[in-house]
Amino acid sequence: MRLNTIAIALIVLGVLIIIFAGFKTVRPTERAVIERFGKFQRLKEAGLTWIIPNIDKMYKINITEQMVDVLPQMVITKDKLNAEVDAVVYYQIIDVKASMYNVDDHRTQLTSLARTTLRAVIGNMTLTDANEKRGDINERVERVLDKETKSYGVEVLRVEIQKIEPPADVQDAMNKVVKAEQEKIAAMDMATATETRADGEKRAEIKKAEGVKRGLVLSAEGKAEAIKLVADADATKIKVVNEAAQKYFVGNAQTLKKIEAVEVSLKENTKILVDTDRVQTVVTEAAGVTPIPRGSTKTGKSK
Hints:
The protein has 303 residues and is α+β, with helices and mostly antiparallel strands. Among the domains are: 7-61, no CATH class; 66-166, CATH 3.30.479.30. It is 58% helix and 21% strand. It has seven helices and eight strands. The protein has a three-stranded antiparallel sheet. Strands 6-7-8 form a three-stranded antiparallel sheet. α6 (168-267) packs antiparallel against α7 (276-287). The N and C termini lie far apart (213 Å).
């Protein structure tokens, strides 16, 4: 009886262990694939689930964004140069069942496909173009990978090239070319700045010269106007003097001729009958005395 009780207890304990062992938890970042006897049974979302121990088997698949590193490789470019290319691929599993049964190892497959695609894309470009157009390369590789990996249940989110580096000797030559180009640009900028400064100084000098010229012209015009005014004043003065002199000398010349006529007559004892008033007038005019008309003489005595 006691043995039967122990046996029953052991059986119950075994059943409980089996039951509790069948409980499984699926996290929100995962999806579960459950197989029974090696055959696909069902998919399980996040949460608690139960499987039959030793009969069912559960595989958890990460459905978050993941990254795979495409190992560095040497790629021959279109211009026959060896370039070391390294990139990473970001992807996400969108079909859990396909990622389990359509490909043996989706990460290995994705890496291999990415390396092949990079060689094909960069191989048709020169090294310079490859370095300058990394964004285009990323997009082209991403489109190819996304198309090819649909059957894997994988969606390629983006591709990022980490480096495209030529051999050391080629890199040195490229660095020299870049340096020379930078120096050329710097020299051109310096020349442009110098030319601009010289042009500005030239314009300033021209404006200064124009200002000096304008000042001289205005000064000369002022002096000319002053000289003209002085000349006009002198001419007016001379005209007035001339007019006065002319009036004076014309009158005196007539008087002088009268005196000379009288003098000649006296020397020759020529008798000339003249009006005494006129002789007196001639003599007094020659002497510069104004004669007093007759009848106007006044004496100091009153009549």
